[in-house]
Every structure is written in C-alpha cells, then in structure tokens.
C-alpha cells in the first residue's frame, strides 16, 4: 500500500509539469500586456520597459517558463503584480472559503444522491423512480449560473427570505451550497441507481432475502456496501469538479474564494496568480484522487490485497503449500 501511495505521488510531478506548461503558454500568448494593465494605457515607454525588467517579462519564452517551473517545484509561486504579496499567501487567504463551500456542497450532494439513488433503484419504474430521474436530469443539465440567478430571484428578490450575496452567516451559504450540491447530487444519484440495480439482482441478495433478513439490512449491509466503489469514484470526481468549477457561483454570490480570485487575476493579467491558482487546484485534485484510491482498500479488501508485492504473495503461497519435514515418513 505504501509503495502504491509513493508511486501515485511521483506521478503528480509530470501531471503538474504539463499543467504549468499549458497554463503558462496560454497566458504568455494571450493578447494584452501586464505592464499596461498595471500602469494604464497612458503609461510611458520607459515605465513599461522598467516594468518588464522588474518582473522579467522581457526575457525569452523558454527562460521564463523554466524559471516558473523551477520556482513552483521549490514551493515559490511568485509575487502578485497587483498586490505585491506572495501568491501562495493570497491563495491560502482565500482557500478556506472555497474549501468550505465545496465541502458543504459535496456533502449535501452525497447525502441526497445516495439516498435518492437507493430509493430509485429499490422502487424501479415507480412514480418515485421517475420523479427522482427527472430531478437528476434537471440537475445535470441546468447550468450553475442559471440555477444561481433563479434562486436569487426567487428567494432573495421575490420572497426576501435569504441574502443574495456575501459570507457573513449561515443564511448566506444556503443558496450557493444548494446550487453546487444540486449538480453533484444529480450525478451521484444516477451513479448510485445504476450500481444498485446491478447489485440487487445478484444471487447473494436473493439468498439474504430467502434467509429472512429484513429489507433494510439486505439493502444497506449487502447491496449498498457492494455498490459503493462507483459511488466513491463519482464523489471524488464531483469534489474535483466543484473545486475547479466554483467560478460562476463565487462570482454571482460575491464569495471571496480562489475561483473569484482567479477571474480577477485573468482580467488584470496577473500571470503568477493565474498559474498559482491553477496549480493549487490541480494539486488538490490529485490529492483527492489519491484519498479515493486509499478508501477503496477499506471498502473492498480484495483491492488491498492487490497492492501487496509479488514477493510477499509468493512467500504466503509457499507457507501454505509447503509439506512439513518428515511428513512422508509419517504417512508411510
């Protein structure tokens, strides 16, 4: 297991390298000059040249790219052009807000998705199943910005029940969490329903029912446990999608998270902040996928045994099949 974890961590290096190269290349060739964004359109030529020299923008493309890669792998995300503060400190200041939003949304989506998926699979083709299927299709199809504006219009403008923006209390989190949780729950619900339908038709489920076990115990202890792997995968995917896809929600609800910070950095041509935020999100996604793989081994013991080395498996096999000394004489 430890060998597998180390291998996955080492695989993070080429992934992050590719992400840095792609993001830096896109930001380098995007129209516009960061110096003009900082100094204004009326800035003098000397001021622009001085700004280029200060931040190394006058150096060749590959020199800047290599310097950026080297600094990031050393843990230095650079300095923001706008605030003159460390990019990592800017990210860490806003990251708890985004993590809070994503965690609550993912948890809400997991609860609704699993419960709804189980109910839909157990009551297949019923009115309850059709209603939940329509709900999941709506959640998957509806864009987050449209759902956000619809919720603001209904609950803030018309009913005046919830605040439209900000993060000053519990009420301020209800609309953005429900917006993101709706999409997450719809995807998890469809995955849970599909996985449960495959499991509840197995022979051991019929055997458990024939032995007189209650329906609750049969579904929860037998069917659900053996259908959790796809659900865990769906939850991990949705958590990463939420972490990287909160841009519209944070913008509409004025939430000071890293996604809103990313949009502001793109508009201001603040290259170090853009690259730093994207790399930070990529690191989080890789870590989440690693955690999901580790959870697999606790849910299904067969996966844990597959992580064992070939030498250890051979030693166990030899210990089981070996014949004690003198065994042949005793038989004789």
Characterise the protein shown here.
The protein is mainly α and 332 residues long. It has two domains: 72 residues; 180 residues, MetI-like (MetI-like fold). Helix content is 78%, strand content 0%. The chain contains 17 helices and no strands. The longest helix is centred in the N-terminal third of the chain and has 36 residues. It is flat.
Set out the fold topology:
Layout: H1 2-29, H2 34-39, H3 45-55, H4 61-73, H5 87-122, H6 127-141, H7 144-158, H8 170-199, H9 203-210, H10 215-226, H11 228-244, H12 247-252, H13 258-267, H14 271-299, H15 301-306, H16 310-321, H17 327-331
Helix pairs in contact: 1-4, 1-14, 5-6, 5-8, 5-11, 5-14, 6-8, 7-8, 8-11, 9-10, 11-14, 13-14
Keywords:
MetI-like fold; 17 helices; mainly alpha; disordered C terminus; 2 domains; flat
Short structural description:
This protein is mostly helical. It has helices at 2-29, 34-39, 45-55, 61-73, 87-122, 127-141, 144-158, 170-199, 203-210, 215-226, 228-244, 247-252, 258-267, 271-299, 301-306, 310-321, 327-331.
Q: How many strand segments?
A: 0
Order of helical and strand elements? HHHHHHHHHHHHHHHHH
Which fold does the CATH topology of the largest domain refer to? MetI-like fold
Radius of gyration, whole Å: 27 Å
Number of helices: 17
Helix content: over 70%
User: What assembly state would you assign to the polypeptide chains in this entry?
Assistant: single chain
Structural class: mainly alpha
- In angstroms, what separates the terminal alpha carbons? 45 Å
| CATH architecture label of the largest domain | Orthogonal Bundle
**Sheet with the most strands, sense and barrel status:** none
Low-confidence stretches: 327-332
Overall residue-averaged pLDDT value = 82
CATH superfamily of the largest domain: MetI-like
Shape descriptor reads: flat
Count the domains: 2
Relative strand content: under 5%
What is the CATH class name of the largest domain? Mainly Alpha
């Amino acid at each position: 297991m430890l060998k597998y974890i180390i291998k996955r961590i080492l695989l993070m290096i080429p992934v992050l390298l590719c992400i840095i190269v792609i993001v830096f290349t896109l930001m380098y060739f995007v129209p516009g000059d960061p110096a003009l964004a900082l100094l204004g359109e009326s800035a003098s030529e000397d001021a622009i040249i001085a700004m280029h020299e200060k931040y190394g923008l006058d150096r060749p493309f590959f020199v800047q790219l290599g310097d950026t890669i080297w600094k990031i792998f050393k843990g230095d995300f650079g300095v923001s052009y706008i605030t003159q503060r460390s990019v990592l400190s800017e990210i860490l200041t806003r990251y708890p807000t985004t993590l809070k939003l994503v965690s609550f949304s993912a948890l809400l989506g997991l609860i609704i998705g699993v419960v709804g998926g189980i109910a839909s699979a157990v009551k297949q083709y019923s009115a309850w199943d059709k209603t939940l299927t329509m709900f999941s299709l709506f959640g998957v199809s509806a864009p987050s910005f449209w759902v956000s504006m619809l919720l603001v219009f209904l609950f803030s403008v018309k009913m005046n029940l919830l605040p439209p923006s900000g993060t000053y209390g519990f009420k301020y989190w209800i609309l953005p969490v429900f917006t993101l949780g709706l999409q997450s729950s719809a995807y998890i619900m469809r995955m849970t329903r599909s996985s449960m339908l495959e499991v509840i038709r197995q022979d051991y489920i019929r055997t458990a029912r024939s032995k007189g076990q209650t329906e609750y115990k049969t579904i929860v202890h037998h069917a659900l446990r053996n259908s959790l792997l796809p659900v865990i995968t769906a939850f991990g995917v949705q958590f990463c999608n939420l972490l990287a896809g909160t841009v519209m929600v944070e913008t509409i609800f004025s939430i000071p998270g890293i996604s809103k910070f990313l949009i502001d950095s793109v508009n201001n041509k603040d290259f170090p902040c853009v690259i730093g935020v994207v790399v930070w999100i990529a690191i989080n996604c890789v870590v989440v996928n690693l955690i999901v793989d580790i959870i697999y081994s606790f849910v299904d013991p067969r996966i844990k045994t597959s992580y064992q080395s070939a030498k250890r498996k051979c030693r166990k096999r030899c210990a089981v099949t070996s014949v004690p000394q003198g065994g042949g004489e005793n038989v004789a």
